[in-house]
C-alpha cells in the first residue's frame, strides 16, 4: 500500500521560515488522491511571468510520460500536479567545474533561482542537481521539503523541472531534469520512484544489485530469467573490462534507462508495474460497505469500482460460500435462494493478469480481495459487513531442487492455507501459514516436475502459483 507519503517537518534553528504558499495546477486527475500515485512537478528557474510556460512544459512532460508504456496502460493510477514556484532569474547555474569534459569554452554562469539548480554537479557536466554536491544540496532539500509540506503534503513523488534547454538531469530523492527532452525526467523518475538503475556505462561505485542490474550470469537464476529470449532480453555486460564487465543488464542500447527516446525494456517495465501495485490497490471503492438492513429487497447488488488498466488487464473472481459464482464482472446480484441461514461470505478476488508481468518467475504476486459477510436468517438479511485485504506473496527460488520459501503477507492478518498439488491433482502437502511467516518447504525428496501452490484465505482460493522442482 502507499508507503511513500511523507509528512515532513524540518525545523532547524536558523532555517525556520514561514509557510510559502504557491499556486498548484492539476495536470492529470484520475481520482481520489488517497488511491493514486500523486506526482508533483516543481518549477525551477522560471520567473513569475514564465510560470505559464512552466505549466505548458509540465503538461508536455505529463503527455509524453503517459503516451509511453507502461504509464500509458496505468495512467488511471496517477494524478499529476504542478506547483508554480517563481525564481528571481531564469535557467540554472553552470559553474564550468565539470571534470569529465573540457569546460574551457564555457563561461561560468550563475543565476538566482529558487532551488539553486546547477550543472556540473559531482564534477559531471550533464548532471543537473539542486546542489553542486550532497553537502550543498542539504539546505535545498530542506527548502524542497517545506515547499511540499506547505503546498502538497500528500505527494508520493516530486520532480523538479528546470527551465533550460541544455541537456541534464539526475535521479535521487527528488529527481531533477532540464526541459531539453522530457524523456530525461521520465528516465530520472525510473530511478527515483521505481528503483531502476542506469543501463549505460557507469563509474564503479554505482554498480549494485537492482531490478535491471546484476552480477548473476546463470540463465536459470538471473532475476529476469523469465524474459530471456523475449522482447530481445538477454544478459549484456555494462563494459568490456574492469568492474563494469562484471555487471549485466537486460538489453543493450534498447532501454530508456540507457538511451532516451527508447521504450523501457521488458524488465524495467515489469519493475515499474510491480511498484505501482506495491503502492496502489486496484480497488478504488465498492458498495455496499457496512450496512444494517431492516427490510431487505432481493436481489442484493454488490459493486466493485476498479482502477482499470488500458486495455483492462484486471481479472476478478467472485466466490460465494466457497463456490465460484462469476468471473471478470464488476457487479453481481445475489438472490435470496443463493443464501444459507447464518453467515454467508462473498469474496471478490482481483489480480492484474497483464502479460507485462511474468509473475511465474517474478518474485512477488499481488492479489486484492473484498469480502462481504452477509448475515441471513429466516427474518431476512440483518447486516452486511465488508473488509478489503491485499496480499503480497513471494515464492523463491523458483525453480529449485532444494528448499523453497513462501512468504505470504496480508493487511488483515488473515491466516492462510497453502496446498501443494501435483500435476495429477493429488494434494502433496497442506500448510497453515500465519501472516508474514516465512514458510520453508524442503523439496529434496519430491520428484522433478511442476507443482501447483494454491493459496486460500478463509477457505477462498485467492491465488495459484506454479512451482518447479528441478
Ligand atoms: Zn531496462
From the spread of the alpha carbons, the general shape counts as: flat
Q: Count structural domains.
A: 3
Mean pLDDT score: 90
Strand content: 25-35%
**What is the tally of helical segments?**
4
Q: What is the CATH architecture descriptor of the largest domain?
A: Sandwich
How far is the N terminus from the C terminus?
34 Å
Give the CATH superfamily of the largest domain. Macroglobulin (MG2) domain
Rg estimate, integer Å: 26 Å
Extract low-pLDDT stretches. Answer: 3-15
Q: Helix/strand-derived class?
A: mainly beta
Helical amount among residues, as a percent range?
10-25%
- What is the CATH top level name of the largest domain? Mainly Beta
Tell me the major beta sheet.
8 strands, antiparallel
Total E-strand runs = 23
The ligands bound in this entry are: zinc ion
Which fold name is given in CATH as the topology of the largest domain? Immunoglobulin-like
Listing every helix as H and every strand as E from the N terminus to the C terminus, the arrangement reads EEHEHEEEHEEHEEEEEEEEEEEEEEE
